[in-house]
Please model this.
Amino acid sequence: MEEAKIAIVADWLTDSGGAEKVVLAIHRMFPDAPIFTSIYDEKKLPQFAEADVRTSFLQKWPKSKKKHQLYLKWMPMAFEQFDLSDYDIVISSSHSCAKGVITKPSTMHVSYCHTPMRYVWDDCHRYINDYPWPRIVKKIAPCFLHKIRLWDRLAADRVDYFISNSDYIGERIKKYYKRDSKTIYPIVETNDFYLSSEEEDFYLAVGRLIPYKKFDLIVDAFNHLGKPLKIVGRGPEMKRLKRMAGKNIEFLDYVSDEDLRMLYSTCKAFVFPQIEDFGIAPVEAMASGRPVIAYAEGGALETVKDGVSGVFFKTQSTEALIRAVQKFEGKDFDPKKVASSVADFGRERFEKELMEFLKTKWKAFG
Model:
């Protein structure tokens, strides 16, 4: 592989999240590899300032950096127009259209799949119902998503090897793409987090304020509980959530990495009610010694150990979350045991597993 010419492909680079952290980790492994992406916001992601980022025609479209969802219809075309004929290995990081790039038969395409597109497969109905689209958009959306679904299934066949970011996603890849995959958990910089001797009287939730993250469930539950809650994140749900929230709930919007580490290490517990493909934020909280109150589905089942590093609740309801918080408050958690339970999710493990996978497949591919 030392002589192989490598390219990296990402859906979009417009905000900081789990997928972007994976792209950055791959970039650090292969710093000379260009990154092809539909849209790039250099102000939001300065960590890519030294990277060779190459964007599509969507980069110059109105509001593309803030509202990339508006241009999903054109993203398949955007990725198909990238010329990757000069590369021996293409590594795509995909939860949307990046895996649909076209490569030569002699090019090995490995796709790190965060999830098959949720909004065109199992979650398509919920996305249409939950998002505050105009009524006319909701009516035409099923036809539009049907076409994207057909393209997505076709695009999956262009991938030579799939990597899943959890066993849960591996099952979804098998279901919708009829393909096997290798699970390599995403990188979590566990060494960046620390245990604090001071625990403050507040719960913490972190993430993009979008419907499927279920922040409305958290707000409703803590309105009833009356316990202090801090929410870190921004998104289209912000105004609605603030209108719902009582005085015990504080919205912090965006915070620095340093402040986030402090919040992780001093909160009573991290609240995680959504179904997530993997869930980097809960692992970061556990690396800080803080237990997680999690919905018992998705990637959380592979990272949170019930009774050791957190507690689960089995239905996505206000009542179930309230009971889980009450159950949590009757238990004692050892911060050192919580942190040690996720010690194997660091950068060294990710880079080693990914490199071994690439070398093995490249040898067989050639």
